[in-house]
Specification:
InterPro entries: Class-I_Pyr_Nuc-Dis_Oxidored (IPR050151), FAD/NAD-bd_sf (IPR036188), FAD/NAD-binding_dom (IPR023753), FAD/NAD-linked_Rdtase_dimer_sf (IPR016156), Pyr_nuc-diS_OxRdtase (IPR001100), Pyr_nucl-diS_OxRdtase_dimer (IPR004099). With about 475 residues, the chain is of the alpha/beta class. The protein is built from twelve helices and 22 strands. About 30% of the residues lie in helices and about 25% in strands. It binds flavin-adenine dinucleotide (FAD) and nicotinamide-adenine-dinucleotide.
């Protein structure tokens, strides 16, 4: 390997080309900075290459399968319905290729230099890039660490086997699993169970901890899973799994009783381990927490004011939603702009059938924080648009503080909830009161009217409510 003595000079170096890194790069460059971005694998990171885009494409295919099964209610007949995994995988590759081209075109437009290789810090103003045959050094004035995190399986199922899947491998499958056991209690596990069931797999969904939703939402989700013939095993822990050539047997322990399930595949949720160890952070003096994540300020600074960190490598975040926001803030701060991020109103979305969305406080968490709360509820079964589209399952909840009428939270399951949540996020950010939601006009007929009537029901003013 050739190690150069010469050190290239850049105003800003970004390490990691995922959503956090490339948003930081483009915002800094738009504001006049000379930027280089170092990426060891593929621009776009996990989100674009093997996360958000792949999983949402599969969820969309699942939605179309469920919708297609209902075509006859609309007078449409199709002779047969089948699913071709290779066609979906081909579409996935095309979408990823096109989106990657788009991101690279934007980086080029703003003259962001793309450097392929693995970065390690050499000093608090110098970084080295390992590129196989050479090792280049770069001097920087400011840097952003956006190296993300690695999805890591629990020790009990850490062995590599074609029948054990996780968030990194599930959406790369070449064939539809005959029977998929999904074990996990996060949004990714719920999406996996819902998606593969709709695509045609038999699904067993097992989880230990509570699902991350409001109790009314969880109840409706579990009812829908039952309706879709997903077998649910609650409050259980995965004890052991034995993969074989043709199947996999998994032992669960519920209430001291053992239960075994044999299936074709097991999907397991993972925890995230930050991609910090190989960065040699000691060389630049950036601190990490006990898990290795890099703590940041509301302006995305680390303990070294000229070094910023964004996205999954920082505590709290596990969503591209947050990486994108933090990336923009880092880019703007480096150029001297006033910019901040605040985790107060981060939308949490699960692309299940039906979709789930939440932001802010639940009634229970608001009461724990000492609020006297009002709860507005509206069932999609009373919404006209839900009736005509045959998507009547679901419930919309809005939480407000009784004393001030200020909106504190939103929880929903049902068609349209992913669109409604943007109104909820804005309401929270603006400190809106129920009248700010109930005063304006809403398109009719539309799912949005369920958001309106949930807000109206805070004061028993909803018309379509018995
Ligand atoms: C199945 C799945 C579904 C998901 N769905 C959603 C969703 O619907 N909505 C949502 O908001 N989020 C979703 N996520 C989460 C989302 O993918 C992540 O939150 C997001 O990718 C984090 O962005 P990031 O830029 O912080 O890190 P990453 O996307 O992980 O990017 C980090 C980049 O840094 C590079 N890198 C690491 N170390 C170095 C180094 N030393 N030198 C050079 N380069 C380096 C990596 O190669 C990588 O490209 C999903 C994730 C998965 C797995
Ligand atoms: N980007 C980040 O900052 C980030 C990301 C993840 C975790 N963390 C932090 O790391 C710490 C550890 O988090 P965590 O381990 O609770 O992850 P987690 O809460 O993110 O768990 C993710 C999923 O893995 C499942 N899971 C966890 N342990 C399991 C096991 N032994 N067997 C089967 N499934 C299992 C959970 O049920 C869940 O579905 C926490 O403090 C958390 O805040 C930070």
């Amino acid at each position: 390997m050739v190690v150069g003595d010469f050190s290239h000079e850049k105003e800003v170096i970004i390490v990691g080309g995922g959503p956090g890194g490339y948003h930081a790069a483009i915002r800094a460059a738009q504001l006049g900075k000379e930027v280089a971005i170092i990426e060891k694998n593929a621009i776009g990171g996990i989100c674009l290459n093997n996360g958000c885009i792949s999983s949402k494409l599969f969820a969309e295919a699942a939605k179309r399968m469920r919708d297609a099964a209902d075509l006859s209610s609309f007078g449409v007949t199709a002779s047969s319905l089948s699913f071709d995994m290779s066609a979906l995988q081909e579409r996935k590759e095309t979408i990823i290729t096109n989106l990657t081209k788009g991101v690279k075109a934007l980086l080029n437009k703003y003259h962001v230099e793309m450097i392929k290789g693995e970065a390690t810090f050499l000093a608090d103003n110098q970084i080295g890039v390992e590129r196989g045959e050479s090792f280049e050094k770069y001097q920087f004035e400011q840097a952003v660490i956006a190296t993300g995190a690695t999805y890591t399986r629990p020790d009990s199922v850490s062995m590599e086997h074609k029948r054990i899947l996780d968030p990194s491998t599930l959406y790369k499958l070449k064939e539809l699993p005959e029977h998929l056991i999904v074990y996990g209690s996060d949004y990714q596990a719920v999406e996996a169970a819902s998606t593969f069931s709709a695509l045609g797999s038999q699904v067993t969904f097992a989880y230990k901890d509570e699902l991350p939703y409001d109790p009314a939402v969880t109840k409706e989700l579990l009812r829908l899973m039952k309706k879709h013939k997903i077998k649910v095993i609650k409050e259980t822990s995965l004890e052991e799994c034995s993969p074989g050539d043709n199947d996999i047997t998994v032992s669960f322990l519920s209430d001291s009783k053992e239960k075994t399930v044999t299936a074709s595949h097991l999907y397991i949720s993972c925890t995230q381990k930050p991609n910090t160890p190989s960065l040699r952070l000691d060389a630049c003096g950036v601190n990490t927490d006990e898990y290795g994540f890099i703590p940041i300020t509301p302006t995305t600074e680390t303990n070294q004011p000229h070094i910023f960190a964004v996205g999954d490598v920082t505590p709290n975040s596990e969503l591209a939603v947050e990486s994108i926001k933090q990336g923009k803030v880092a880019g703007e701060r480096m150029a001297g702009e006033k910019s901040e991020w605040d985790p107060y109103a981060i939308p949490q979305v699960t692309h299940a059938i039906r979709p789930i969305a939440s932001v802010g406080l639940t009634a229970e968490s608001a009461r724990k924080e000492g609020f006297d709360v009002a709860v507005g509820n509206f069932s999609l079964s009373a919404n006209g648009y839900a009736a005509l589209t045959n998507k009547k399952e679901g419930v919309i909840k809005i939480i407000s503080e009784k004393k001030t009428d200020v909106i504190l939270g939103f929880q929903a399951i049902g068609e349209g909830s992913v669109e409604m949540i943007s109104q909820a996020v804005q309401s929270l950010e603006m400190g809106a009161r129920d009248e700010d939601i109930t005063y304006p006009f809403y398109p009719h007929p539309s799912f949005n009217e369920a958001w309106l009537e949930a807000a109206e029901s805070l004061k028993n003013k909803a018309v379509h409510r018995v």
